[in-house]
Every structure is written in C-alpha cells, then in structure tokens.
Amino acid sequence: MHPAIIAFSQADSKLASLIELIGDLTLTPSYKPFESLVMSIISQQLSAKAAATIKARVKLVIPNITPELVLAAEEEAIRQCGVSYPKIRYIRDLSTKVITGEVALDNLQDLDNTELLKQLTSVKGIGAWTAEMFLIFTLGRPDVMSIGDAGLQRAAKWLHTLADRKDGNYLGEVAPNWAPYRSFASLYLWRAIDMGFVDSGLQVESCAKPNLEQG
Questions:
Q1: How far apart are CA 87 and CA 69, in angstroms?
Q2: pTM higher than 0.85
Q3: CA Rg, the chain, in Å?
Q4: How buried is 63 (Cβ within 10 angstroms: 0-12 exposed, 13-18 middle, 19+ buried)?
Q5: Where in the numbering of this chain does the HhH-GPD domain appear (predicted)?
Q6: How far apart are CA 185 and CA 16, in angstroms?
Q7: Residue 85: HSE in the Cβ half-sphere, 13 Å Cα cutoff
C-alpha cells in the first residue's frame, strides 16, 4: 500500500472513503520533460481530441522534440499543423530559455517545487496551472496542489460538504491535512469528478462502488 493512502486513512476519513470507492491511483513520471511542456502549451484551450490531432501532426514535422529542433523548424510548417502563432512563440521562448539555462530541465531533481514553478512561469504561455500539471503528471512530484484548479475546488467542497465561500478556496480548508501527498489527493478528486460522484448529490459515504466486472 502506498504511504499516501496510509497517511490519508489517518488524516482524512472522507478522503479515505473516496479512495476505498476508487481504488489505487498512481503517478507515472515522464522521461521527456521538454516534450511534455511543449505538448502542454499546444494543448491549451483545446479539446482533448483536437489537441491529440495537432500534437500528432507536430510529431511528424519534428519527430524528436528538442529545443534545438523546435528552433530549427520552419514556423509555417508548425503553423500548418494547427498550432497558433502565439503558441509557436511560446514554444520557441521555452526552447530558448532551456538552451540558455533559464529553465533548467537537465537538473530537475535539484530544484524544489517553488523554484521550478518560478522558472516555468517565466516562460511565455506557461501559467501556474500548466506548471503545476507538469510537476504532477510529468515529474510525478507527490505534494503539489493547484489552488487555481476549479475542478479540484469543486470536488473538495463536495467531499467535505463545505459551506459556500466567497473566495471559492475550499482547498484552503482541507488540503493542508493532505501534505505531503497533495498530488495524490488531487488524482482522487479529479477521478471523483470523472466518475460522477461530485455531481451525484450524494455524500461520499453514500456513493456506490463501481462494478468493474460488468462489460
């Protein structure tokens, strides 16, 4: 059993109930951090289907996504893939900053979350949310909480049946209890949305465990 699940069972009975409903979720780090960032920029404000199509086209133009090859690629060739001109500028800015060392992707293990977020958000087109998703899904950092993620806020409110807040920061009430595994808590909150629990009108203890043997 992952230490996060053990910690949650002691720190938050509601989250423990959600974990029991959903089962094991894990973080799988990527070994291509630069490519992940480029693809994150390309995917912004697009549906999953549209993003997948455009990313596949970009991979045909630049099969090996490196800073040097991004800068060497013809801008119009990237544009013909469906990438907007602003996003092309963003991925070129990222490429330049990686080459100059302003964004240090070669020694990610030496940077804490705060420093890495600072470097990433210095790149045009990379905001806090994109940087936080990179830390969670590409690097597998265990203790990241995206306060600006509306889905997480909504799920946290549902999980703990919290009263309405003018600032909308429901995570601020409960997320401190989830350290040092807040990324894992995020995975379960996102999955709770995907599985319909958050919009079910039921408290977590009343939600039915999905029958995975069907179908």
A1: 16
A2: yes
A3: 19
A4: exposed
A5: 42-194
A6: 10
A7: 1
Handedness of CA 19, 134, 169, 178 (dihedral sign): positive
Contact yes or no for 186/136 (Cβ under 8 A): yes
Q: Which long-range CB contacts under 8 A does 191-196 form with residues at least 24 apart?
A: 191/22, 191/25, 192/18, 192/22, 192/155, 192/158, 192/159, 193/151, 193/154, 193/155, 195/22
Computed from CA positions of residues 70, 102, 132, 179, in that sequence, does the dihedral angle turn out positive or negative? positive
- Decide: helix, strand or coil at residue 73: coil
Residue 28 near residue 214, CB atoms below 8 Å: no
| pLDDT tens track for 155-187 | 999 999 999 999 999 999 999 999 999 999 999
C-alpha dist (Å) from residue 114 to 75, 111, 132, 135, 143: 33, 8, 10, 11, 11
Count the neighbouring beta carbons within 10 Å of the beta carbon of residue 82: 16
- The residues near 46 (Cβ < 8 Å, ≥ 6 apart) are 54
Could you give the count of Cα atoms lying within 13 Å of 143 in the half-sphere of its Cβ?
Answer: 13
